[in-house]
Write a structure and sequence with these properties.
Elements: H1 6-16, H2 25-32, E1 51-57, E2 60-65, E3 86-87, H3 120-125, H4 128-131, H5 133-139, H6 172-188
Antiparallel strand pairs: 1-2, 1-3
Length: about 190
């Protein structure tokens, strides 16, 4: 039994009216996949490559700008339930072939900067981005503010600076800097 949705009826009317005209790939994608802020739970796709279908919960998903989802509650959200931000979509289909050869291979898709764990926000607020950087920078990129300021979770609104790498044995540059600082401190006190 086929469900009669507006999309199915529209396609049926197009075919019955002698519409042997096929939709262009971009039009077809937009007809089947959601645009910005559209629901996408059922089809799990968004109309353009700049959008990603993010799951809020098992009842709702939305096409949002790629990288623009963090797990948890959003202020002003009419439905007070947390976002899981699980990515449901694969990249939007590319448009069909053009009139001639293209300029070369397409650039790789942008890396999605999302948290891969549901507790990332809490862990980041507890300082784990610095204490457990290897794990957090891989699995909690958004909460550790590694996404180019899409979201800021720290009170100051900036990402914490990474710890400096320890100086290698025999590296005199760090000793030189420390020695210069000591000499400057000494000269300020009137000594040498």
């Amino acid at each position: 039994m086929m469900l009669r949705t507006p999309l199915n009826l529209g396609l049926l009317l197009l075919l019955c009216a002698g519409g042997a005209t096929a939709l262009a790939p971009a039009e077809e994608t937009e007809a089947l996949c959601g645009g910005l802020w559209a629901r996408c739970l059922e089809r799990k796709c968004c109309a353009t490559p700049e959008l990603t279908c993010y799951e809020k919960d098992r009842w709702f998903a939305q096409c949002r700008p790629t990288g623009n989802c963090r797990p948890g509650f959003y202020e002003g959200d009419p439905h007070k339930s947390p976002w899981s931000c699980v990515v449901l979509s694969s990249p939007a289909p590319a448009p069909g072939p053009g009139p001639g050869p293209g300029p070369g291979p397409a650039p790789p898709p942008p890396q999605q900067c999302v948290d891969k764990g549901q507790h990332c926000v809490d862990w980041a607020m507890a300082g784990e981005c610095e204490k457990n950087a290897a794990y957090m920078h891989e699995f909690c990129m958004n909460s550790c503010n590694l996404c180019g300021n899409l979201f800021t979770n720290s009170p100051e609104g900036t990402a914490a600076a990474p710890a400096a790498a320890p100086a290698a044995a025999g590296d005199s540059s760090s000793n030189h800097v420390a020695g210069s600082r000591n000499a400057t401190d000494s000269s300020l006190r009137g000594g040498r």
